[in-house]
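TA notes. Do not distribute before section.
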Amino acid sequence: MSRLMFFVLVMTLQACMIASDPLPSQSPEETAGILERAKQAYRETKAKVLNVGSTVADFAGMYYEEHFKQTADSYVEWVKGSASSLWERLKNRVPTS
């Protein structure tokens, strides 16, 4: 995830540098303004990526609920029943003294 954030930051900085008009002389105040714009663009991009990530996670959860959960639940119940019946048979065969 940190590689992705670094990549997004580099791309955002490049886009800001291309979009900004070149000034004849850059004072420290102007450089600070560019950095502030880059930080703001990074924050906005990060927020958008996190929003998309949560949307994808919600979609995956909904897809699981609709398509896999019904099938998986029946198998889980079958395994629970088989395990408990096996345990009962084992308890009956092994003498407890």
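Switch to the second chain here.
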Amino acid sequence: MRRAGLGEGVPPGNYGNYGYANSGYSACEEENERLTESLRSKVTAIKSLSIEIGHEVKTQNKLLAEMDSQFDSTTGFLGLCPT
């Protein structure tokens, strides 16, 4: 499949740039690099966010375990009181 605008004006047998005109190939490469960097920054942000969520989940689980223990202690204490 041939892309429109790429490879036009290149003399036959010029395979140094794989048959693409320097300007078209360079523009595609620059756009690819820009999009790759944008994707890289988004992945980094998502990774950081997921790590922060993991820390928050651990903290919340610890607090819930402490509350559960305190409720168990209170239940035991209330069970000893005469009614």
